[in-house]
Prior knowledge:
The complex is a heterodimer of chains A (about 240) and B (about 290).
Chain A: E1 10-19, E2 22-32, E3 37-41, H1 48-56, E4 63-68, E5 71-72, H2 78-83, E6 86-89, H3 101-108, H4 112-115, H5 118-128, H6 130-134, H7 145-158, E7 163-167, H8 175-190, E8 194-199, H9 202-206, E9 211-216, E10 219-225, H10 226-231, H11 233-240
Parallel strand pairs in A: 3-8, 3-9, 6-7, 7-8
Antiparallel strand pairs in A: 1-2, 1-4, 4-5, 9-10
Helix pairs in contact in A: 3-7, 5-7
Chain B: H1 2-32, H2 39-56, H3 61-87, H4 93-116, E1 130-133, E2 136-139, H5 140-162, H6 164-174, H7 176-181, H8 186-211, H9 220-233, H10 238-259, H11 264-278
Antiparallel strand pairs in B: 1-2
Amino acid sequence: MSGSDAQPLLTLRDVEAGYGGQRVLRGVGFDVPAGQVVTLIGPNGHGKTTLLYCISGLVRPTRGEIRLDGQSIVGLPVDRIVERGIVHIPQGDMIFPDMSVLDNLLMGAYLDAAAATREERLHRVLSLLPRLAERRAQTASTLSGGERRMLAIGRGLMAGGRILLIDEPSLGLAPIVIDQIYQVIADLKAEGRTILLVEENASRVVELADRVHLLDNGEIVWEGPAAELAENDELLETYLGG
Amino acid sequence: MDTAIQIVVSGLTLGAMYAVSTIALSLVWGSLRMLNMAQGALLTAGGYAAYTAVVTLALPVWIGLPLAILVGAVIGALMYLLVVRYMLGRPGFETNVIIGTVGIALILENLVLRLYGAYPLQQPIGLPDGFQVGATWVPWQNVLILVVSILLMVVMSAFLERTRAGRAIRATAQHQRGAMLMGVPVGRVYIQVLMIGGALAAISGIMLSTITTLAPTMGYDPMLKAFIICVIAGLGNINGALFAAFALGLFEAAVQYFLGVRFGFPALLLLVIAALIWRPYGVFGRRKQARL
């Protein structure tokens, strides 16, 4: 990945956003250095998804700065932001229900840069997510919840990109499927990919993350290395119910 | 036997023309949730544009026809840029855009009326001659319309299924935000869809004008038929619409033959009523609307 070591790949400063007068984010700021897994945890309904929407451009922040590799991306249309290398794997998957698994994956490589090496990417994604290879001709809406999540992740990986935003990959899945999905994320980390991971459940992310940020009521209330969070019983209990 | 041949020939010709304009309507609905009430006016514009290119400008047909189709596409693009764009994503879009496109239809229709007058004109384009099947005379023009329509449908379906741009149109129709996150510029997709819709309407209008005449209101009837087909097949369902277009073309031709021409349209309306009672989501429709 390009970008100097001195400068984080993604920086957020004082980001505020809301829906119709309701403020959801109240000045959020942190960095995502290249090659690291940074996680954002916190109770539901406290702005985690909104923050990812602000980064990928689906929601426009009312204030603050978001920079990718030093360049501001606030106010750019979503497709331009994606073009610069931000890949957002959203909550709820947003897969294309009436398309085949294969067509969904090919949509991931829609942009020119990814399309040029499409076959190679497809091969890699299918070997990382063998379940999708078995189901490639199936209509996406007939997949199970875990398979849909795999498809959403696989589709995001088809895009390549410079940073992956992954929103609650474990939401609503059985523990064994969550294990599989976290294995995939661990593989991606081992490949050296930059990941911003959002989760409600802290226990899963602690072993994986380099840094953890705790978002509560639209503000970062704690941040530090993942190991520190694991030791901080008081914090875990207050915010995450143990 | 001769009766059957006659019904099949005129039914297939009708069905072919209905199918092309139904695809246009269905594609636009499926992608934007936009009921294009200017579809009929686009049809008319295509027919008159072909006439102007070939008669007034005396261009050869092989230049005139593509030019007329282009006119349809350009009107489609202008509709997006000047009107639809400002309504999209706002509350009440589905209703607003119906009123908006009715307005566009009125403007186009009156422009045609102003420029060409109210009297029907003869469309000079078309194949002469025909051939005999039993006692039935089959004009080559009807065969051409059928062939062109089938080709168009094959090309459209290959485009939507197999190309990157086609996949992007389907993706946008199925999940707009999901498509945006894949880097699809949805505004450009919407322009493309309206241009394709305009071009298909123009082709449909040119074909229609070659077997009837040009008149400022010529687009209404096929637009109405396209709506009927969409109601019966399920709006946004392209394959169902194709099947329904040909089935209804044959049905209308049969009713016209056995009961008289004036009963063709009421018979179609009866089918609509039946569909609305028993299959309100369309014969091929699902409760959750099938998309492209």
